[in-house]
Design brief:
By secondary structure, this protein is mostly helical. Helices cover 47% and strands 7% of the residues. The chain has helices at residues 3-10, 17-22, 43-62, 88-109, 112-155, 225-239, 252-257, and strands spanning 25-30, 69-75, 78-82. The longest helix has 44 residues, at 112-155.
């Protein structure tokens, strides 16, 4: 067995083990300061450190500074150095009083402040979620519109022209065209116009055996050249918008041809 350990075991201690394990032993001392050492233990190391601190104390004393007094609290958990002038007890009491007042205020309000803050936090989170959802829906709508445009462009044949409605005159009537097809005429009032009867090659006669009058079959083309040229000029004038006012016609040449 180690002799040093045996001597310490037989030695009578100043304090009981309970005082060092459950409490601490206080001592009042003067704090010279602290300094760094090259090794963590050794008598010479401690002597050099104390010598440096005493030299620093003489310098501070010559400058008029006093050595602070501290309290050493020694226990099995370590050594604490406390300055008694820090008023630690007053600080602890002030903190305890502040917590006590805060708890009383909470009890008086019935916890309404906490509940209100929780509701506000929940509403703020809900608003943020709705804004995010709204932005996602907008992006989806834009994507669908883009896909619809691409589909319309791909399905429409190349070089196709959108059919335009025929132009009308000032009386909202479609101008007459001898080559217009009956299917191209638009419906009026939601109904299709009656079909134009086809001309039969046979000449139909009435009850008296006479041929019915046909303004389109009056022997056109059998007129003299001068009359035919006048008729062509009048037809071109009618196409250009020419109107007849106060004109007297003589239909004798036409009567002889019809």
């Amino acid at each position: 067995m180690n002799r040093a350990f045996s001597r310490k075991k037989d030695k009578t201690w100043m304090h009981t083990p309970e005082a060092l394990s459950k409490h601490y032993i206080p001592y009042n001392a003067k704090f010279l300061g602290s300094t760094e050492v090259e090794q963590p233990k050794g008598t010479e190391v401690v002597r050099d450190a104390v010598r440096k601190l005493k030299f620093a104390r003489h310098i501070k004393k010559s400058e008029g500074q006093k050595i602070p007094k501290v309290e050493l609290q020694i226990s099995i958990y370590g050594v604490k150095i406390l300055e008694p002038k820090t008023k630690a007890e007053e600080i602890t009491l002030t903190i305890g009083q502040a917590f006590d007042l805060a708890y009383r205020k909470f009890l008086e309000s019935g916890g309404k402040d906490v509940e209100t803050r929780k509701q506000i936090a929940g509403l703020q989170k809900r608003i943020q979620d709705l804004e995010t959802e709204n932005m996602e829906l907008k992006n989806k709508v834009q994507d669908l519109e883009s896909q619809l445009r691409i589909t319309q462009v791909s399905t429409s044949p190349a070089g196709s022209v959108t059919p335009k409605s025929p132009s009308t005159d000032i009386f909202d009537m479609i101008p007459f065209s001898p080559i217009s097809h009956p299917a191209s005429m638009p419906a009026r009032n939601g109904t299709q116009p009656p079909p134009i009867p086809s001309r039969s090659t046979e000449i139909k006669r009435d009850l008296f055996g006479a041929e019915p009058f046909d303004p389109f079959n009056c022997g056109a083309g059998d007129f003299p050249p001068d009359i035919q040229s006048k008729l062509d000029e009048m037809q071109e004038g009618f196409k250009m918008g020419l109107t007849l006012e106060g004109t007297v016609f003589c239909l004798d040449p036409l009567d002889s041809r019809c």
